[in-house]
Amino acid sequence: MKQFGGPVLFLDRSDINTDEIIPAKYLTEVKKEALAPYLLEDLNLEGFDPAGEWRGKARVVLTRDNFGCGSSREHAPWALEVNDITCVIASSYARIFRQNMFNGGMLAIELPAEKVEEIFALKDKGEVICDVDVEGKKLTFSFKDGKKEIDFSLSQFDEALVKSGGWVEFADNKY
Amino acid sequence: MGKTIAEKIFDAHLVDEPFKGTHVLSLDVVMCHEITTPVAIADLKWRKKDRIFDPTKIKAVIDHVTPSKDSKSATQAKIIREWAQQHGIKDFFDVGANGVCHALFPEKGFIRPGYTVIMGDSHTCTHGAFGAFAAGVGTTDLEVGILKGVCAFRPPKSIKVEISGEMQKGVFAKDVILEVIRTLTVNGATDHVIEFCGSLVETMNMEERMTLCNMAIEAGGTSGQCMPDRVTAEYLWPFITSDYNNDFEAAVEDFKKWHSDPDAQYAKTLTIDVTDLKPVATVGFKPDQVKALADLEDTTIDQVYIGSCTNGRISDLRIAAEVTKGKKLAPGVRGIVSPATPEIYRQAMKEGLLDIFMDAGYCIANPTCGACLGMSTGVLAEGEVCVSTTNRNFNGRMGKGGMVHLASPASAAASGITGHLTDPVQYMG
Predict the structure, then answer these.
(1) Cβ of residue B371 closer than 8 Å to a chain A Cβ
(2) Is B230 on the interface with A (CB under 8 A)?
(3) What residues 49-108 of chain A have any CB closer than 8 A to a CB of chain B?
(4) Whose CA, among B133, B178, B338, B393, lies 20 to 30 Å from B217?
(5) Complex ipTM, two decimals?
(6) Helix, strand, or coil here: A85?
């Protein structure tokens, strides 16, 4: 199973699309690692700097609705993965992106919009660290003057994919 | 209780339900292109699983960047080319024979009503126009599809979109689907199949139905679907004649098994009468941001792009040529036409459509996905504006800092003549 958890990158917008996560001009790369410098290069989000301090530090992304909409490119989850961001928390996802995350053994955690709002409220408290307990289905957010715990759920299939390291191994053993 | 077409297809293809809510389906067609497949091939090799489930069910094409533009795209092409050869994939389309996947594969007759289809391309939903369940997937799903011929989905929930009324002069299937997306919003159909039905859809030809289904993903839909009928049978007839012993009516009758039952359950029903619909275009960076072209006429453009899996088919080129005939592109406006397949290219040439475009000042590009996703053949510079018959207007999509306005071929062609976004009605015969 992959490692999950660490500093949170707040992307406070809905409908962040796959072209914003990784522009198509980099899709001629065959090696996933080559995508690393271009993650979120075209993100249209006020105040967001693609070259900001989050780079190399963030391990978890928090965002709003319909994250990963658009293209089927698995390069979007890979661009996150090669930057050691293996967990995304959002109020909803585009279907293909969400499946791509779990297919690669990564976490696309879906929380109700009001819970996502509560986590966004921590944004002004300095650095926020998110611990992810996959077994206990619990997220613990630590910040300067406190902690916040939020439960999440995973479907049996998604959990099996995360634990088996992805869909290829799961499917080849079973079908 | 009755079933939707999607539920019927799922029932017929269910291989396993490893967990509640997870349906593993057998696949009838796995489509591959050179952008998302080479990584799957490389990974299968690395895992020592370089096998394919059935060479007759895998169709492959080089279409996104073709002919190769640089060493990296040449390497991608080489990987898929050698893989197709090694595994005896006969339906592989390379330079000279290649076209945009979602235009080329239907043209070759690869899809049937009731089929399950996946591809590492979000616009795979196009093939639902034939009454198939066709879904875009990522590289890992594609890899498992190639290896095992299966893919996992959640049980399908459907949204019924009933479209009635008559399209006014200047209004086309593209305007209708943009109106549907405006109404549903960009995530209104997430995890749902959009079932297009109603009197207008019944009278639409296959090319128009493909335009509708192509953009189901822009509302988040897993697939778009139309009921397979007489129109579908006519399109597929050259490929299915012997299957039905030369009995056309038998095919039409057989297709009915893939119709949704009258008492099927839908998550939502949307009713749209297009009678008052005006030609539209998108504004901004989301495909649900749609306005009447008549209200956008102060938007100047730098480029017109006519092509792609949405609107690069022969009927699209005919309409654009009708609007363009005898006219010139406005000074300073670049025009690019990319017929979506070699057959379309040849037909457009025979009909004199390419002459019309060239006389107007257009560049005729080869069949390719090209500028649609900003990879080649017409990418925009920072601050440039393009009116395009493609399907996606995301920020940076056609080139960093560029703006794309999605519109019908008629609207794109009319805008090319005036140099600003233009309602095509005045140019229609």
Answers:
(1) no
(2) no
(3) 65-66, 69-74, 77, 92-97, 99-100, 103-104
(4) B338
(5) 0.97
(6) coil
